[in-house]
Amino acid sequence: MPVSVNDVMQLLCHVSEERKMKAAFKHSGRGALVAGATAFVGGLMGGPPGIAVGGAVGGLLGAWMTTGQFKPIPQILLELPPVEQQRLYDNAYAIIRNLDWTDTAQLIALVMGNAAIQERLLGMLTNYLANELKAEIQYGT
Question: How does strand 135-138 pair with strand 22-25?
Fold first, then answer.
């Protein structure tokens, strides 16, 4: 079954929420990159007004990424720009592509019932956050 980026984001949010994962960002450069990417996408979506909205959202996300405060991973995932969500989707889909499901709820149930797949997804997510976003990860607090 074709799976949307939103389905995979919901799955990753659920898995990371179960482990009570949080992250804080250590480098301001990534925050600036996210702010710029979000403004660019906003510009593609609606010209100058889109740039203003995209810039505002990206600026808030970029500023938050430079604060060093821990935030829940599900919140971080949902605030990522579409380009970053697509990268996560591609990595996660490589892990879940052989599962057979009909909707997001069934996909989540299948993954939550399979410890090996959960661990692979968590490992992929942790590596992505630590290596790509330069985040510090905390579990279960």
Answer: antiparallel
